[in-house]
Design goal:
By secondary structure, the protein is mainly beta. The protein has a single domain, classed as Trefoil (Acidic Fibroblast Growth Factor, subunit A). It contains two helices and eight strands; from the N terminus they run αββββαββββ. It has a two-stranded antiparallel ribbon with strand order 1-2. Strands 3-4 form a two-stranded antiparallel ribbon. It has a two-stranded antiparallel ribbon with strand order 5-6. A hairpin with a 7-residue loop joins strand 1 and strand 2. The C terminus is likely disordered.
Length: 116
């Protein structure tokens, strides 16, 4: 990973740009579509986020939908998973995960489970 600046190539700028769309499973929530990959969305599998092509299933729509809510400190915004509403987006170990509240730094990502 490297910083994207005003002097970065157009391809890098596009790869770093995500379009906020109405949630695929709930219109009051949001989903993220990468600018350079129309029709793909940020979704989760095994509680880790990945860019995935839209397959039209209800499961995909739920996995790619995130619901903004007031942050746990009472300020800012957190994004909860539509299908795991007690799990929020969290950056950890060079990736984005669905994580619950509490636990050690290495254990905050949800434990592996069935594909979501």
């Amino acid at each position: 990973m490297s910083p994207v600046t005003s002097g970065s190539p157009s391809l890098d700028k596009g790869d770093a740009t995500w379009i906020v769309r109405r949630g695929l499973a709930d219109g009051s929530c949001v989903c993220l579509e990468p600018r350079n990959h129309p029709g793909d969305f940020l979704g989760h599998f095994d509680h880790r986020l990945h860019r995935q092509p839209m397959d039209g299933t209800a499961r995909f729509r739920a996995d790619a939908t995130f619901c903004p809510q007031t942050g746990r400190s009472g300020t800012d915004t957190s994004s909860a998973s539509y299908d795991y509403p007690t799990r929020h987006l969290r950056h950890y170990d060079h990736g984005v995960h669905l994580a619950g509240n509490g636990g050690s730094t290495s254990g905050t990502a949800a434990p592996p489970g069935p594909p979501t």
